[in-house]
Design brief:
38% of the residues lie in helices and 16% in strands. It has 332 residues and is an alpha/beta fold.
C-alpha cells in the first residue's frame, strides 16, 4: 500500500497526541466541506438505483453528456489499466503515485515524464496520464495543449487520461465538457472541493462505449445509496459552490502569506494546498507533528504539502507551531 495523507490516527499513536488536538493539513481537502443534512431513514434500506438523480446532477455540474459514478476516482484509477492490453504509459512526476502503481500492476510499461518531455515523446506513448492541476506541484496544462495531445493519441487508438481532482475552483480549465471526443477520459471526485472524501464518490467522463466496459468490470452497486443521495444534492447546490470558489482562494492566500513569513516559500500551489520543496522536509514534518500539526511529506523530491486550516483557530495553531519550530532551530 502506498503512503497517503489523512492518516491521523497513525500520527496520534506515533506522537502520543490525542486526536482532537490535531490540525490535519495532510490531505488537500476543503476543510469546510458541503454541509450534509440528515438523510431520510429509507435511504439506508434500499439498494442503489442507477435511475436516481445522481447522473443528471453530475452531468449538469460537469457539463458532460455521459459519465459513470464510481466509488471515488480511486476505483477508476485501479480499473482503467485493465481495459487495455499491455502498452506504453507516460505520467508526470512527481504526481499522485496510485496512477503509476495501478498501470504497473496491470503489466504496462510506465515512463516518468516532465512537462517538457511530452511533445518529443508522445509518439512513443499509447496512454498519456496527467493530473490537472498536478498533485503535489500545482502545475496546470492549457486546454488547447491538452486537446492537441488528445487528438494525436486518438489517431492511433491511444488515450489521454486527465485526473481533475483539484480543478473545481477553476472549472474553465476542465475538459469535462469535451469527453465525447475519442480517447479522452476525465476523472472527477467529490472528495476535494466538496470536502466529501468519506462518501467515496467520483465520476469517469468518457465515450459511452468505454463507460460501458468500465461499468461491466465494476459490477452493480458501485456507489452506495446514502452516498448517491448526498452527492446528488451537493452537485446541485450552486449557491454553496459559488461561495466555496470565493472562499478557498482567500484561505490559500492566507496560508501562502503565513508560510512565506516563516521562510517556507511555495514552489507550487492550488486553491487547496501549497507545496514546499526543501531538503529539510522530513525534519520539518516531524517537528510540526510533535506539535500536533500533520503535513504531507514526500521523499522525492524532498518536500511538504500544506493543506488549508479550516478557520482562524487553525491558522493560529499552525502559526504557533511554525514559530516554535523556528525558535528551536535558532537555539539548536
Amino acid at each position: 500500500m502506498l503512503e497517503h495523507g489523512g492518516k491521523l490516527r497513525a500520527a496520534a499513536n506515533r506522537y502520543r497526541i490525542p486526536l482532537p488536538q490535531w490540525l490535519d493539513l495532510s490531505t488537500g481537502i476543503n476543510p469546510n466541506g458541503w454541509p450534509v443534512p440528515t438523510l431520510p431513514a429509507a435511504i439506508w434500506q434500499r439498494l442503489p438505483e442507477d435511475e436516481d438523480e445522481l447522473v443528471a446532477a453530475a452531468c449538469g455540474y460537469y457539463q458532460a453528456s455521459t459519465l459513470l459514478p464510481v466509488a471515488g476516482s480511486q476505483a477508476a484509477i485501479q480499473m482503467l489499466p485493465k481495459l487495455r492490453p499491455a502498452c506504453r504509459v507516460g505520467l508526470i512526476t512527481p504526481g499522485y503515485a496510485e496512477h503509476a502503481a495501478a498501470w504497473e500492476r496491470a503489466g504496462h510499461s510506465v515512463q516518468a515524464l516532465t512537462s517538457d518531455d511530452i511533445d518529443p515523446q508522445l509518439s512513443d506513448l499509447d496512454v498519456l496520464l496527467l493530473i490537472n492541476p498536478n498533485n503535489p506541484t500545482g502545475n496546470c496544462f492549457e486546454r488547447e495543449q491538452l486537446l492537441s495531445w488528445r487528438q494525436q493519441l486518438a489517431r492511433r487508438g491511444g488515450w489521454l487520461i486527465i485526473d481533475e481532482a483539484f480543478i473545481d475552483c477553476v472549472p474553465e480549465r476542465s475538459l469535462a465538457s469535451e469527453t465525447m471526443l475519442p480517447g479522452l477520459i476525465v476523472l472527477r471526485s467529490l472528495g476535494k472541493f466538496f470536502g466529501l472524501a468519506g462518501i467515496r464518490v467520483g465520476f469517469v467522463l468518457a465515450e459511452p462505449s468505454l463507460l460501458q466496459q468500465l461499468h461491466e468490470q465494476l459490477g452493480p452497486w458501485a456507489v452506495s445509496s446514502p452516498a448517491r443521495w448526498v452527492a446528488s444534492r451537493a452537485l446541485q447546490d450552486q449557491s454553496w459552490q459559488q461561495q466555496a470558489r470565493q472562499r478557498l482562494p482567500r484561505q490559500a492566500q492566507q496560508l501562502a502569506d503565513l508560510l512565506r513569513s516563516m521562510g517556507l516559500n511555495p514552489a507550487g500551489s492550488t486553491a487547496f494546498f501549497h507545496w514546499i520543496v526543501t531538503p529539510e522536509a522530513a525534519e520539518i514534518h516531524h517537528r510540526l507533528a510533535r506539535q500536533g500539526v500533520l503535513t504531507r511529506h514526500f521523499s522525492s523530491p524532498a518536500s511538504l504539502r500544506f493543506g488549508l486550516p479550516a478557520d482562524q483557530a487553525g491558522f493560529q495553531q499552525l502559526a504557533m507551531a511554525l514559530q516554535q519550530m523556528s525558535r528551536k532551530s535558532c537555539c539548536a
